[in-house]
Amino acid sequence: MSHSNSRATHGIAAGRLGAEELGCNFADVSPPLSADAAVVAADRCHYCYDAPCVAACPTGIDIPSFIRKIGNGNLKGAARDILSANPLGGMCSRVCPTEILCEGACVRNHQDGEPVRIGALQRHATDFQMAREAAGAEPLFKRTSETGRRVAVVGAGPAGLACAHTLALAGHAVTVFDAREKPGGLSEYGIAAYKTVDDFAQREVEWLLSVGGISIEQGKQLGRDLKLEALRETFDAVFIGIGLGGTQALRIEGEALEGVRDAVDFIAQLREARDLATLPVGRRVVVIGGGNTAIDATVQSRKLGAEHVTLAYRRGSAQMSATWAEQEFARTQGVTIVEWMKPLRIVGAGRVEAVEFERTALDANGALQGTGEIERIEADMVLKAIGQKLLPAGLEALQLTDGGVRIAVDADGATSLEGVWAGGDCAGHGATDLTVQAVQDGKLAARAIDRYLAAQAVKAA
Ligand code: SF4
């Protein structure tokens, strides 16, 4: 990543790198396996009984079964194993932090220090099947006969799409309402571009919808264009998977200076840009936060041509929600990670010039405290990646939890309101913010809704 084509001398500017360099920088970070490499990778699997990799997968994919099928050349069967447990298995193979899930649990780690490449194999099988179906092959899944029941799904992110697909297969008619221009939620707007090249998020949505029985209405936001009560009256059940639409503020001086923005907006703008050379980026970028959004923002700033990119986190790397592999990847891309630094104020006259931090440490009770040592990092762009929050508009009738930041749900995603389920980041059952967990939430809620609708039909008979 050189900066030889840089045209701007200071501040935020577009076109720091030429088209060729940008093309290289934003190419697929983890290119697909060749057919031969997939067979070699599959051959390393021991097909463990009670496999720890399966237990570590939130969607419970039968990993040894699909790997065995890849080894035998049965890619369609492998895809069926994956997609029946996780309809967004293609996206998850690209974005899952496999190092702390299936691959982290693989017994091969203890033998030769290298797990079976489960994520890459999953991508190999799902890409194969999706490409076949796009070329006109018979679909893997078929809907059962129509039940005549209608379900509203609010939010076309991973939770909503998994829920809609599972309900549609069970014969229900699903209408998905989504606030943005395109479906996909975080898959479309919130993931680093180099993880999901070639418009994969939209290709996956097309595959999910090809099962039939699902219609999507874009530009419909709960609380603005939709009322929960009206949805309950019009539909037989409702699933809410709206994610976390609000961003947290730092609440420090200088936050309104030009050049300070939310990392989620930066990432979304990058994902939707037709020409990456039009995207403005600073020369000296400071990203505040410790999650995957923070990592994606730092790496993409570097890839756009920023010269100095610093990720600052108020605790240590062990407490970051970004995995060690993500942190290591950022370092290999030239990102400097500074730990135990709390932002005090953003300095500048109209435009950001620097961020002042106070060093932090844990006191004897384990509480985070400022040490009084002040550090200043020069910056012409500051990206805030300190988390997102639930937008409560339209949720007034629902019980919330965790101090009002999540919708209260049971293990199946049922909310406090009869006939309404919720899942993914907006719902709270102590789960993670992972795509794969959102998929599992949507799938489990869909099964619960299916049981509920069947019970309703029996009552009505
Ligand atoms: S733990 Fe590793 S070796 Fe065992 S079944 Fe899973 S992928 Fe194969």
UniProtKB/TrEMBL annotation:
Name of the protein in question: dihydrouracil dehydrogenase (NAD(+))
Catalysed reactions listed for this entry: 5,6-dihydrothymine + NAD(+) = thymine + NADH + H(+); 5,6-dihydrouracil + NAD(+) = uracil + NADH + H(+)
Keyword S-adenosyl-L-methionine found: no
Subunit structure: Heterotetramer of 2 PreA and 2 PreT subunits.
Keywords: Flavoprotein, FMN, Oxidoreductase
InterPro entries: 4Fe4S_Fe-S-bd, DPD_II, FAD/NAD-bd_sf, FAD/NAD-binding_dom, Helical_ferredxn
Function: Involved in pyrimidine base degradation. Catalyzes physiologically the reduction of uracil to 5,6-dihydrouracil (DHU) by using NADH as a specific cosubstrate. It also catalyzes the reverse reaction and the reduction of thymine to 5,6-dihydrothymine (DHT).
Required cofactor(s): FMN
EC numbers: 1.3.1.1
GO molecular function, one term: iron-sulfur cluster binding
Organism, as annotated: Paraburkholderia silviterrae
A Pfam family that the UniProt record links to this protein: Pyr_redox_2
Domain 4Fe-4S ferredoxin-type: 36-69
